[in-house]
């Protein structure tokens, strides 16, 4: 995927959703461990199939085009898959069956808010700003075990595949626990590593399209699109900086574009790169920007809209180093 150079949303700043508001705690690393290593997806060529009819990667164009992002909401449309009352027992989509609470109950209006406004707005934030080399056929979704297998996937997605898509995601609205409002992760990727299938779950507490909730959803979808410590290790320049502010070692992203934008945004010519968060435990550490560096940008995002583009270029620039954007 390629970021449109002059405007990139603040997708990845942990403070957007995880730290700027105490109402949401991101648990991406925990979810990613449950999901396991993303499988390699098959892209089926249409209509001119090769002899096998399939290939592990199909990139149809050398031109960067707008990302086609399709979301399927079977689990939000099926009343046996979300809480209708506190007496219900429902899947939480991490592999457990849990007792619903009053706070988990999803009304018709709340379901509509998630499907018709929250998800489309969050997805559009990415679609407006990310370009990809498009796939050349239908994305054939694997049959999953584990966390990704908890979601309802139409049977023809496993055979015919999903057409006109560069990213496919399956959404649910199962119960969430504690201060976690939503989560998302990658299930499958092309052989080059670009995510093409993911899942997302939205708790009832996020079932309105307020600015905060849209930012929560946008942030979580960014994880499904590939922002994780694993991807950073493979596709960017990670440097362990010893003795930074008295710490034994701090991981920073120091790829050329990230380094350039970090130094420019903070007006600091000696900044070693953009720090990764090293606190918060298994759900937060490493797969987010450092709170110390990014927190003010998350606050400014909501207070000073006119500065959104400048700061977004800084904190998302490392996506360019992945080679997918």
Automatic annotation (TrEMBL):
Textual note on the cofactor: Binds 1 zinc ion per subunit.
Localization, UniProt: Membrane
MF (Gene Ontology): metal ion binding; metalloendopeptidase activity
Active-site residues per Swiss-Prot or TrEMBL entry: 220
Cited InterPro entries: Peptidase_M8
Binding residues for Zn(2+): 219, 223, 288
Family to which the UniProt record says this protein belongs: Belongs to the peptidase M8 family.
Name this polypeptide is given: Leishmanolysin-like peptidase
Taxonomic source organism: Trypanosoma theileri
């Amino acid at each position: 995927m390629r970021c449109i150079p002059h405007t990139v949303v603040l997708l990845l700043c942990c403070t957007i959703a995880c730290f700027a508001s105490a109402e949401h705690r991101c648990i991406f690393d925990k979810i990613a461990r449950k999901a396991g290593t993303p499988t390699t997806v098959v892209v089926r060529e249409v209509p001119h199939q090769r002899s096998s009819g399939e290939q592990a990667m199909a990139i149809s164009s050398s031109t960067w085009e707008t990302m086609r992002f399709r979301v399927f909401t079977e689990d939000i449309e099926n009343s046996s898959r979300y809480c209708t009352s506190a007496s219900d027992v429902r899947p939480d989509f991490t592999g457990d069956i849990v007792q619903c609470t009053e706070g988990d109950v999803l009304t018709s209006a709340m379901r509509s808010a998630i499907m018709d406004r929250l998800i489309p707005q969050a997805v559009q934030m990415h679609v407006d700003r990310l370009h990809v080399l498009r796939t050349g056929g239908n994305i054939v979704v694997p049959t999953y075990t584990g966390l990704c297998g908890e979601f309802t996937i139409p049977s023809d997605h496993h055979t015919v595949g999903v057409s006109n898509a560069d990213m496919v995601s399956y959404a649910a609205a199962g119960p969430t626990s504690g201060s976690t409002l939503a989560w998302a992760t990658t299930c499958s990727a092309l052989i080059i590593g670009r995510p093409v299938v993911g899942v997302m779950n939205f708790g009832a507490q996020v079932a309105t399209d307020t600015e905060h909730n849209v930012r929560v959803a946008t942030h979580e979808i960014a994880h499904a699109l590939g922002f994780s410590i694993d991807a950073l290790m493979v596709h960017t320049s990670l440097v362990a900086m010893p003795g930074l502010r008295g710490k034994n070692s701090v991981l920073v992203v120091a790829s050329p574009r990230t380094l350039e934008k970090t130094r420019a945004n903070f007006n600091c010519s000696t900044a070693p790169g953009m720090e990764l968060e090293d606190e918060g435990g298994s759900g937060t550490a490493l797969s987010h920007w450092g709170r110390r560096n990014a927190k003010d940008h998350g606050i400014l995002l909501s207070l000073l809209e006119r500065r959104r583009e400048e700061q977004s270029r800084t904190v998302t620039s490392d996506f360019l180093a992945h080679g997918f954007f």
